[in-house]
Design goal:
Chain B: It comes from Vogesella margarita. The structure holds three protein chains of three kinds. Chain A is mostly helical. Chain A is built from 14 helices and no strands. Chain C folds into two domains: 181 residues, Rossmann fold (3-Layer(aba) Sandwich); 241 residues, Rossmann fold. The chains are: A mainly alpha, B mainly alpha, C alpha/beta. Chains in contact: A-B, A-C, B-C.
Chain lengths: 360, 312, 569
C-alpha cells in the first residue's frame, strides 16, 4: 500500500493541541508575562491566606495616616489625634451605614443592634493601645486612619479579593458548564426548563440581582462567593450550551456514537476537552468581573465582613481620606488591583489566541 | 409581524412568573423574617405579631405568593417599609433623573465608541490601533470606583470646575450644572470596554469574503468600511446596545450614590441598606419587564437591519 | 504574422507567506505565463499548488500582512506593472478591466444589501452613470446571466437565492463593466453538478459574446478541458505544463499531468486498481491493470435489507409550533455481502441522512433495516450495541471526524475498549498498530495527533478506527469527496483492497458519479429524498431509465473533446 503523501512536516513530533497551545502561550511575551503576574498574585494570596505574610494587618503599628517613606517630608502634615478623636471617628465610620435606616425606623443609638459589637471592638482596640508600642512615623506604603500598615492591608486585601474572585468564578463556571452541557447536549424538555431559568436570571441586571441577593444574605466571604456564583453562571451557561449543541453534531462525536460511546462518555470524554480552552478564557474573564463586583459590593457595604479587608473595603475609606489629602491607600489599591486585572485581561486575550485550535 | 409580537408577549408570561418565583423565594424564604429587622430592639411578642400581620407574613406561603402575584399584576407594590411612601409613587419620582443621566451617557458613549472603534479597526495592526487597544485594556482594569472617587476629588473638589454633588428640580439646571461631571465619568468608565467590543465586531467583519468582493469591485477602503462593513457590524453593536437599555432604568448606581442624584440606582442601594424589601421587589420586577420588552424590541430592530433574520 | 501582445503577462511571480515567527513558505515559485486577449486560460492544480494565490496576486488582493511578493516579479496588464501600480490605479482596474468571481457565492455577496444594489454599486463606480441608468443596466445584466424574474430578484437579498443564482449574480456583477479579463476562482466547486454545468455554459457563452479573456482556476482537469483554450498545470507552486487544451489531453508531456488525467476514475473504464501519481514519476512505464467486473451475482448473500425507510426532520417554532420535513421518503434496497451499493444524489437529496439513519445516528420515522434478518430500528439500545460494532461509518470531512484532542493511539483503542476487544492496553496498542500498518501508515504514527496528518492520512486513520471493531458493513459518507484527486485515488484503492481482503460490504454515498461507478456493484439514485432509480452499476450508466439520472450523467465533465461550445478554428 503506497503512502498517501510525504510525512507531516511538523517541527516537533507528537504534539497534542494542549502542548502546542502552551508553547504558543510561552512564545507570546505579553501573555506569558501576564501569566507570571497572575501566578505571583496567587502565590501572595496563598501566603496571606495561610498566615505566612500580613497576618498582623490589624495591628496599629504607626501614627494615624503616617505617610509613605518616600514622601515622608512632603506629605500633608497629619493631625495628632488623641484617643478620643479616634474613638469618635471609629464610631462615625462604623455607624455611618446604619444611620440612614436608624433614622427612618426610629432607632436611637442605644437600640443600635451594632452597639454591643462596637463596644467590644472599642475594648479590644483599647487593649492594643495600652500595649504602648512605639509607633512608626512612616511606613513603606503609609498607614491608614488607625495607623495600620497599608502594605499589610494591601496584601491581606489582595488575598481576600482574589479568593472571592477565583472561588466565585470557579463555582459559577461549574454551575454554568454542567447546566449548559446538559441543556445543549440533550435538548428537548430539559433544555426548555433550563432555558427558562436562564431567561429568568438574565431578565434582571447582574448588579441588581447581586444586591437583591445581598439584601437577604449576610456579609462575609462565603456569602459573597455564593451570591456572585448564583448571579453570574448565565454567561458560561449560554456559551457551553451553544458549544455542546454545536459539537454534538460534529462528525467526531457522531463517530464516537457509532463506535458505541455512551452519552456521558461523549459529553465529558469527547466534547469537554474540546471546549476546555473556552472555559479557561471564560474563567479569566469571570474572575476579572467578579473582582470588580466584589470591590463595588464591599464599597457599598454589602461585601466582606467588617473584620475582613478587601480592595473594595479599602477603597471605601478612600473618599474621606482624599478630602484630607491622604492619597496613599487609594493609590496603592488602585495600582495593585489594576495590575492584576490588566494581567488577567491580557492573559484571557493570549489564551484565546494561543488555545484556539483553528489557528495553526 | 403582529402575530409574532403577540406570541412573544405571550412567551414572557413564564419568564415573568419565574422572576416572581425567584424574588419570592429570595425575600420570603431565604431572607428570613424581616419583622425582626423592622422591630429593632423592642422585640416584644405583640410588636412582632403586629408587624407580621401588617406585612402579611403570618399567612401561609402560597397565599403570600398569591398576594405578591396580585401586586405584580396590578403593579401596586404597597408602601415602602422605611418611608411608608407608596412604592409606585417613590419609583415614579426616581426614574426621571436616572433616565437623564444614563440616557445621555449611552448616547455620548456609543457615538464616541463606534467612531473610535471604526477608526482603529480601519487601521488595524498600526501603531494607533495597538496603542488604543493597550490603553483600553489598561483603562478597563481600573475599578469604576477609582474613576469616580478621583474625578470627584480632583475635578470637583480640588479643581472646582464642577459642583461636588447635588441635584435640583429644574431639568435645565441639572443639565448644565449637575449632570456634566457624572456624565463625563460615566462615559470614561464605559468607553474602554465598548471600544474593545466594537473593534472586535469590525475586525471580524473585515475578515469576511464579501469584503474581498468589495475590493475586487474596485471600491475604496473608506467606502468598504463605511458602507459594507459598518452595516454588517451594526448587527452585533445594535444588539448589545438594545440589551443595555434596561440598565438605563436602573441608572448608574455608583454615580447616583456618589453625586447625590435621586435616581433608581441610589434608591436600590438605599433600599438594600434598609432591607426595604417592597422597593427592591418592585424595582426588580419593573426592570425585568423592561428587559423582556427590550429583548422583543431588539429582535424587531434586528429584523430591520439584517434581512436574513426571520421572525417566527 | 506578428502575434498581438498578450493581455496579461505574469513574469517570474514569486509569492511567499510568513507566519508570525518569520518562517517563510514559498507558495508560488517564480512562474511566468501569458493570457492572450479573448482567450480562456485554465489554471489547474490540487490544493496547495498556488493557483489561487496567483489569481489573488494579479488583482493584489492578497493579505498585506505576512505575504511577500518578490520585487523581481512582474504582472503586466496593458503595459502597466500591476505589482507597482498605485492604489487608485488598482481600484479603477478592479471591477473595471479585471473582474473576479469567487468560489463561495453566498459568503462573497454582502448579506445585508440587495443583489440589485450590489450590481448597481459596481456600475455607478466604474461607468459613472446615474442611478436610474445603472438600474436599467443591472436589470439587463441579470437577464443576460439568466436569472428568472429579474425585476423581483433585483430586490432580493443573497440568502433568498439558491447557490446557482447567487453565482449568476456574482457573474453579472463581474461582467457589468465589460472587463477585458475575468478571473474565476473555482466558481463552480461549491455547486451541484447539474448547476455547475449551467454556470460553465453561461461563462462560456458570455466569454464569446463579450470577447473577454478568462482565467479559470480549478482543481478539475476534466472540467476545464471542456472550454479552456490553454491549460496550465501547477503543482507545489510551479508550472508543470502549459499547453493548448488538445495537447494536454491527447499528448501530455509532463508526468504529473499524465497522473492527474489518469488517477481520476472515468465512466468508461474500471481498472482493478487506480493509477496514482508515483506510478508515473518513476522511470518504469505505467501499464493499465485489468478491468474489474462489477454487479450483484446470483449466489450473493443478503447482509442488509432496507424496506421503506423514511426520515423526518422536526424543527420547532417557538414553544408549541412544530414543523416537519421529510428528508428520506420510503427508500428500499438490498446490500449483498462483500458488495458495494453506491448511493448518488445532489445536495439535499437525503443521501447522507439515509446513511445516518441506518446506524441510528438519526432517528428514522418509518421503515425497517434488516441486518441479517434482525430489524435494527426495533432493537433496544442494549441489543443495538453489538450491531453497532458490525456496521460502521466513515465521514466526509477527515478534519472533523477525528477528535482533535486524542492521539491516534487513543482514537484507535477507544472502540476496542468499548467493545471489549483485546484484554489489556498493551494488546490493544499492538492491534491498533497492526491496523495502522494495514491502512498504509507507519506504526509510530500512534503517538501523533490528528492535526499532524494530511487529509488522506486522516481518512486512513478514520478507516482504521472502524476496522478495529471488525465491522461487516462500512458506510462511506462522501468519504473521498474532500480529498485531492491524487489522494482520492489512493483512498479508493485502499477501500477496494480492504473489500477484497476482508470481505467488507460497502454503502458508498457520494455526489460524484464517476467515483461511485468505479466502486459500486449496484447504484441507487436519490432525488429529494426519494429513490428514483436502482440498478446494476453498468446497466444504470449504460442505459439510464429516469430523466434525472440522465441529467446527472450528462452533467459530468468529460474533458476534451467533449467541449460545451463550438471552438473557434
Amino acid at each position: 500500500m503506497p503512502h498517501s503523501s510525504p510525512p507531516p512536516a511538523a517541527p516537533h513530533p507528537h504534539n497534542s493541541l494542549t502542548r502546542i497551545g502552551w508553547r504558543r502561550l510561552r512564545r507570546d511575551r505579553v501573555g506569558f508575562a501576564a501569566l507570571c503576574i497572575v501566578g505571583a498574585y496567587l502565590l501572595l494570596a496563598l501566603a496571606a491566606w495561610s498566615g505566612l505574610v500580613a497576618s498582623h494587618w490589624q495591628d496599629e503599628v504607626a501614627h494615624p495616616y503616617a505617610p509613605p517613606t518616600l514622601f515622608a517630608g512632603s506629605a500633608p502634615h497629619h493631625l495628632e489625634l488623641d484617643a478620643a478623636d479616634i474613638d469618635a471617628a471609629d464610631r462615625r465610620a462604623a455607624s455611618a451605614a446604619a444611620q440612614d435606616s436608624s433614622g427612618a425606623t426610629g432607632l436611637s443609638a442605644d437600640e443600635d443592634p451594632l452597639a454591643a459589637d462596637l463596644a467590644a471592638a472599642e475594648q479590644q482596640s483599647a487593649q492594643y493601645r495600652s500595649a504602648g508600642q512605639a509607633r512608626a512615623d512612616s511606613l513603606p506604603l503609609g498607614a491608614d486612619q488607625r495607623g495600620r500598615d497599608v502594605l499589610q492591608k494591601l496584601l491581606q486585601g489582595s488575598a481576600t479579593s482574589l479568593q472571592v474572585g477565583i472561588a466565585g468564578a470557579l463555582l459559577a463556571l461549574a454551575i454554568g458548564t454542567v447546566l449548559g452541557a446538559l441543556s445543549g447536549y440533550f435538548g428537548g424538555l430539559l433544555d426548555d426548563l433550563l432555558m427558562w431559568g436562564y431567561s429568568v436570571f438574565t431578565s434582571v441586571p447582574d448588579m441588581l440581582l447581586l444586591l437583591a441577593f445581598a439584601a437577604v444574605s449576610g456579609r462575609g466571604i462565603g456569602t459573597v462567593v455564593l451570591v456572585m456564583a448564583f448571579t453570574s453562571w448565565t454567561g458560561t451557561f449560554r456559551l457551553m450550551r451553544a458549544e455542546f449543541l454545536k459539537h454534538k453534531g460534529r462528525d467526531y462525536v457522531r463517530a464516537a456514537d457509532a463506535i458505541g460511546a455512551g452519552h456521558g462518555r461523549r459529553m465529558f470524554h469527547h466534547i469537554l476537552p474540546n471546549v476546555g480552552h473556552l472555559l479557561l478564557v471564560q474563567f479569566s474573564m469571570l474572575t476579572v468581573a467578579l473582582i470588580k463586583y466584589e470591590a463595588i459590593l464591599s464599597f457599598l457595604g454589602f461585601g466582606v465582613g467588617v473584620t475582613q479587608v478587601s480592595w473594595g473595603a479599602m477603597l471605601a475609606e478612600a473618599p474621606a481620606e482624599l478630602l484630607q489629602g491622604y492619597w496613599w491607600q487609594m493609590l496603592a489599591v488602585t495600582l495593585c488591583m489594576s495590575l492584576l486585572v490588566t494581567a488577567f485581561s491580557l492573559l484571557a486575550d493570549s489564551l484565546r489566541d494561543a488555545l484556539d485550535p483553528k489557528v495553526k | 409581524m403582529l402575530a409574532y409580537i403577540v406570541r412573544r408577549v405571550w412567551q414572557m408570561v413564564p419568564t415573568l412568573f419565574g422572576v416572581m418565583l425567584l424574588l419570592f423565594v429570595l425575600f420570603n424564604w431565604v431572607g428570613g423574617d424581616p419583622s425582626y429587622i423592622l422591630a429593632g430592639k423592642n422585640l416584644s411578642a405583640e410588636a412582632l405579631a403586629g408587624i407580621r400581620q401588617q406585612l402579611g407574613l403570618d399567612l401561609p406561603l402560597p397565599q403570600q405568593f398569591l398576594i405578591f402575584v396580585r401586586q405584580v399584576l396590578t403593579l401596586d407594590f404597597g408602601t415602602s417599609w422605611s418611608t411608608q411612601q407608596p412604592v409606585s409613587a417613590l419609583l415614579h419620582s426616581r426614574i426621571g433623573p436616572s433616565l437623564l443621566l444614563t440616557g445621555s451617557m449611552l448616547l455620548l458613549g456609543t457615538v464616541l465608541a463606534i467612531a473610535i472603534a471604526a477608526l482603529v479597526a480601519y487601521r488595524r495592526g498600526s501603531l494607533t490601533d495597538r496603542l488604543v487597544t493597550l490603553i483600553a485594556t489598561c483603562a478597563m482594569s481600573v475599578s469604576a470606583l477609582v474613576y469616580i472617587i478621583a474625578g470627584q476629588y480632583w475635578l470637583a473638589f480640588k479643581g472646582g470646575w464642577f459642583p461636588i454633588m447635588g441635584w435640583s428640580d429644574s431639568t435645565l439646571d441639572n443639565l448644565l450644572h449637575y449632570l456634566p461631571l457624572p456624565l463625563l465619568l460615566g462615559v470614561i468608565v464605559g468607553l474602554a470596554p465598548d471600544i474593545r467590543f466594537y473593534r472586535s465586531c469590525f475586525v471580524e467583519e473585515l475578515g469576511h469574503d464579501y469584503v474581498r468582493t468589495a475590493r475586487a469591485k474596485g471600491l475604496s477602503e473608506p467606502v468598504i468600511m463605511l458602507k459594507h462593513v459598518l452595516r454588517n457590524a451594526m448587527i452585533p453593536v445594535v444588539t448589545s446596545l438594545m440589551m443595555s437599555l434596561p440598565y438605563l432604568m436602573m441608572g448608574a448606581m455608583l454615580l447616583e450614590t456618589f453625586f447625590g442624584i435621586p435616581g433608581m440606582g441610589k434608591e436600590v442601594v438605599m433600599a438594600v441598606e434598609r432591607s426595604d424589601f417592597p422597593v427592591i421587589k418592585a424595582i426588580t420586577i419593573y426592570i425585568a419587564l423592561a428587559t423582556m420588552l427590550f429583548n422583543l424590541l431588539t429582535d424587531i430592530v434586528y429584523k430591520l437591519i439584517d434581512p436574513r433574520v426571520q421572525l417566527h | 504574422m506578428n502575434p498581438a501582445p498578450p493581455l496579461l503577462s505574469v513574469r517570474k511571480l514569486r509569492v511567499s507567506f510568513r507566519d508570525e515567527h518569520g518562517h517563510g513558505a514559498e507558495a508560488v515559485k517564480g512562474i511566468s505565463f501569458d493570457i492572450p486577449a479573448g482567450k480562456t486560460v485554465a489554471l489547474v492544480g490540487e490544493s496547495g499548488s498556488g493557483k489561487s494565490v496567483t489569481a489573488m496576486a494579479i488583482t493584489r488582493l492578497l493579505p498585506e500582512h505576512g505575504c511577500h511578493i518578490d520585487p523581481d516579479s512582474e504582472i503586466l496588464f496593458g503595459g502597466r506593472n500591476l505589482l507597482t501600480a498605485s492604489r487608485s490605479e488598482l481600484r479603477s482596474l478592479r471591477g473595471g478591466d479585471i473582474a473576479m468571481v469567487f468560489q463561495e457565492p453566498m459568503s462573497s455577496l454582502n448579506p445585508v444589501f440587495s443583489v440589485g444594489e450590489q450590481i448597481i454599486e459596481t456600475l455607478m463606480l466604474h461607468t459613472g452613470v446615474g442611478r436610474k441608468a445603472a438600474q436599467q443596466r443591472a436589470l439587463a445584466l441579470m437577464q443576460e446571466v439568466g436569472l428568472p424574474a429579474p425585476e423581483r430578484k433585483m430586490r432580493s437579498y443573497p440568502h433568498q437565492l439558491s447557490g446557482g443564482q447567487q453565482q449568476r449574480v456574482m457573474i453579472a456583477m463581474a461582467i457589468a463593466c465589460e472587463p477585458k479579463l475575468l478571473i474565476a476562482d473555482e466558481p463552480t466547486t461549491a455547486l451541484d453538478v447539474t448547476i455547475q454545468q449551467q454556470i460553465l455554459q453561461l461563462l462560456a457563452s458570455l466569454q464569446q459574446k463579450h470577447g473577454m479573456a478568462v482565467l479559470f482556476i480549478s482543481h478539475d482537469l476534466e472540467l476545464v478541458g471542456q472550454f479552456a483554450d490553454e491549460v496550465i498545470v501547477m503543482h507545489h507552486g510551479s508550472i508543470h505544463e502549459h499547453a493548448p487544451v488538445r495537447q494536454i489531453f491527447e499528448a501530455p508531456q509532463d508526468a504529473y499531468t499524465k497522473a492527474l488525467l489518469r488517477c481520476r476514475p472515468h465512466l468508461a473504464s474500471r481498472p482493478a486498481k487506480l493509477p496514482v501519481i508515483r506510478d508515473f514519476l518513476g522511470d518504469s512505464c505505467y501499464f493499465e491493470p485489468p478491468q474489474r467486473q462489477r454487479g450483484y451475482q446470483t449466489d450473493d448473500r443478503v447482509i442488509l435489507e432496507v424496506q421503506g425507510l423514511s426520515v423526518d426532520y422536526h424543527s420547532r417554532h417557538g414553544w408549541f409550533g412544530h414543523h416537519s420535513q421529510r428528508a428520506v421518503d420510503g427508500v428500499s434496497f438490498t446490500l449483498m455481502r462483500g458488495r458495494t451499493l453506491g448511493i448518488v444524489g445532489e445536495s439535499g437529496s437525503g443521501k447522507s441522512t439515509l446513511g445516518l439513519a441506518l446506524i441510528r445516528l438519526q432517528q428514522a420515522s418509518a421503515g425497517r433495516v434488516l441486518f441479517e434478518g434482525e430489524d435494527m430500528l426495533a432493537l433496544t439500545p442494549r441489543q443495538l450495541r453489538d450491531y453497532k460494532r458490525r456496521i460502521q461509518i466513515v465521514f466526509q470531512n477527515p478534519y472533523a471526524s477525528l477528535n482533535p484532542r486524542f492521539s491516534v493511539a487513543q482514537i484507535l483503542t477507544e472502540p476496542m475498549l468499548l467493545h471489549g476487544i483485546g484484554c489489556d492496553t498493551a494488546e490493544r496498542l499492538q492491534l491498533a498498530g497492526d491496523w495502522l500498518e494495514h491502512v498504509g501508515l507507519p506504526r509510530k504514527a500512534l503517538a501523533k495527533y490528528p492535526h499532524e496528518f494530511s487529509g488522506g492520512q486522516r481518512q486512513r486513520i478514520a478507516i482504521a478506527r472502524c476496522l478495529t471493531m471488525h465491522p461487516e458493513i462500512l458506510i462511506c459518507d462522501e468519504s473521498v469527496s474532500a480529498l485531492d484527486v491524487s489522494v482520492q485515488a489512493q483512498v479508493l484503492n485502499l477501500l477496494q483492497a480492504l473489500q477484497d481482503e476482508l470481505g467488507l460490504s460497502y454503502l458508498f454515498i457520494s455526489h460524484d458519479l464517476a467515483v461511485v461507478k468505479h466502486l459500486s456493484d449496484q447504484v441507487l439514485v436519490m432525488q429529494q429524498g426519494r429513490c428514483v432509480e436502482l440498478a446494476d452499476a453498468d446497466t444504470l450508466y449504460a442505459a439510464p431509465q429516469h430523466p434525472y439520472t440522465r441529467q446527472l450523467l450528462d452533467a459530468i465533465p468529460q474533458g476534451w473533446p467533449h467541449c460545451i461550445r463550438p471552438r473557434p478554428a
